[in-house]
Amino acid sequence: MKIDRRSFLSFVIGGAAGTALSPLPWKLTDDLSIWSQNWPWTPVPKRGEITHVNSTCTLCPGGCGINVRRVEDRVVKIEGMKGHPVNDGSLCILGLAGVQLLYGPNRVTTPKKKVNGQWRNISWKDALSEIVTKLGELRASNSSHTLACICDSDRGTVPELLNRFLTVYGSPNFIRTPSIQDNYELTLYLTQGVRAMPGFDVKDADFILSFGSGLIEGWQAPVFMFKGKSNLRQKGGQMRQIEPRLSKTAAKSDKWIAIKPGTEGALALGLANVIVNEGLYNRNFIENDSVGFAEYKKYITDEFSPSVVSKMTGIDVTVIAALARDFVRASKPLAICGKGVGRSPGSLGDFLAVHQLNALVGNINAKGGPLAVPDPDYVSWPDVEMDGIASMGVQQVRVDGAGSEKFRHARYLLNRLPEIIQAGQDSPVQVLFVAGANPLYTMADTQAAVKAFDKIPLVVSFSSYMDETAAQSDLILPNHVFLERFEDVPFAQGFPKPIIGLTQPVIDPLFNTRHSGDVIIEMAKELGGTIAEAFTWDSYAACLEETLADKWDTLLDQSYWVDAKFPDIDRAQEFETDSSKFEFNNRDIAALPGYRPVRASGDESFYPLLLVPYDTMRLASGYIGSPPFLVKALEDTILKGNDVLVEINPATAKKLGLLDGRLAILTTPKDSVKVRIYYFDGIMPGVVAIPRGLGHTAYDKFLA
């Protein structure tokens, strides 16, 4: 066997990834911790009764079941819950580190108010009184629509309570943070006519074509995807990873196909060109279960020939043709997209192009394919009765422009908010709630977001931690952490069946915090009138139990519920479009601009390289900071001391006079940062890669 430089890199990186996902390092870590904890000067926890509580992890969208070990009233360990349909006893490193987030020093322990730039502790009564007074003033001036809320999810009782509060108060401005869910949900709606979540039957697929999705780096429900990838290999399946750098997912794939950043959609359309023009598509599906194929065929034939796509992507024509043929030869092929862990929404055109590949092989809603997974239908509260102020307020144009003529199908457009707020003299948002999100860290342009938030008169954070958004807010109403509260978790992203998880309090709240659901209900009652009438529950606990109804006992017993009525994935095709078929083309799709290459910002003569972010399981890149367990596990090719390392191809680096291991200043049109150079043969020339999840300006010295 010939081992060249690229093969050696794949072998080494793949081996490291496999080790990270195997029990060995965690056993060694456990042995090491036992050894270190037996030092004579190390505090020893008190002995006591050992109990276990099942719950659900909320630290990422994966919805894994967890088993929490307690000694007396102290949490000492979190493990994966055996038998749980999502993770079956396994757990990622972030979930394992949940104990540190419970006891870490960066928690907000009581309501806080910012006075002259300094935080002061205040009572819950005073904090709520201040918010209710301000909200009353806005309603009195017919400005109810200037209340907005940013939330990390729009599913579950707490987001639903927030949305209900905004509606009956008189505002249309509930905004979910962006992710690949936005484009996947819109893709399902445009092609299949359904409002549903995407699910992926990775465990039954025998060929996975991944356009940059980090299957072993945290994409969708991480542990479920780990297991699906492992199952693929065990049964002799194949995987192709398409991205500009040799990620751990690429290293563990059968082939890595390096591609110019931002051209993934062009490659998908080029593959479709080969499949269609060589007659390799599923004729039964195309002829009986789809419409718009003729227009689609003309589009890809006219504009995306393999030679044209080769120039766009940097991939040889023969590789494009071979990749298309490999995909269609599989019995259960699956094409997926959404880069890294899926925090960035990406391009709708890319998602459509990749989903259409699945349609060409006829595996939509089929075993081993992509599925449209309906929401668990359990939040069925009575419609609110709105007074005149609310009726007028909800009819106002959304502050982010979603649903307008220009963005007709978009539901949320958070990244437009800073520009809109900055455009006028006064902010169109007068009060902003932020719940379960940290937009001043996760948004694409955080500097613009910080300036915009400065213009909002009252920003209220519901964060349990002093994150970047909480640090800039005016009031903090700290929520219990997930180990201290009941809450429903109505999804596991990418899981192929409707599922509800339940977080259960494994310990009494440590501090003067309150459940955000209780805070919303109390605010509504304080405002009175039709707002109070829309919240008939005495507490969030009562709301949750009533809402879950006949599912409540099952959730209490096993901490999850799976929809047993959801049809098997072998079912016949189900589409809710006007044609009752899969639509390659229709009025809405035709109105879209089609594929457009990503254009780099800035002058190419001054900015000669492309910067791409990448994800790793050892750094949290969402609203949660990375606990010490994660940071200590980071390789010194990512973080060395206080310096972040950026990957660059040695040939590119030498051409620019950049030396391996030396410090440099990385400059973009937005800002500059000090970095350390890391020569990496596994990245395309002309590209620089930087890890996502570092660079926090808040939290504390223990969280990255």
- Gap between N and C termini: 42 Å
Strand content: 15-25%
Q: Extract low-pLDDT stretches.
A: 16-29
Q: How would you state the average pLDDT, rounded?
A: 92
Major sheet strand order: 5-4-17-16-15-6-7
- Outline, from the CA principal axes? globular
Tell me roughly what share of residues is in helical segments.
25-40%
Please give the CATH architecture of the largest domain: 3-Layer(aba) Sandwich
How many β-strand stretches? 27
Largest sheet: 7 strands, mixed
Structural class: alpha/beta
Tell me the domain tally.
Answer: 5
* Individual helix count: 27
Say what the CATH topology of the largest domain is: Rossmann fold
What is the structure about, briefly put?
By secondary structure, the protein is α/β, with parallel strands linked by helices. It contains 27 helices and 27 strands. Strands 5-4-17-16-15-6-7 form a 7-stranded mixed sheet.
Give an overview in words:
This protein is an alpha/beta fold and 704 residues long. The chain folds into five domains: 1-44, no CATH class; 49-104 and 483-506 and 550-571, 2-Layer Sandwich (Phosphorylase Kinase, domain 1); 112-180 and 386-479 and 514-536, Rossmann fold (3-Layer(aba) Sandwich); 202-368, Dimethylsulfoxide Reductase, domain 2, CATH 3.40.228.10; 610-691, Barwin-like endoglucanases, CATH 2.40.40. A seven-stranded mixed sheet has the order 5-4-17-16-15-6-7. Strands 22, 23, 24, 25, 26 and 27 form a six-stranded mixed sheet that branches. A four-stranded parallel sheet has the order 11-10-9-13.
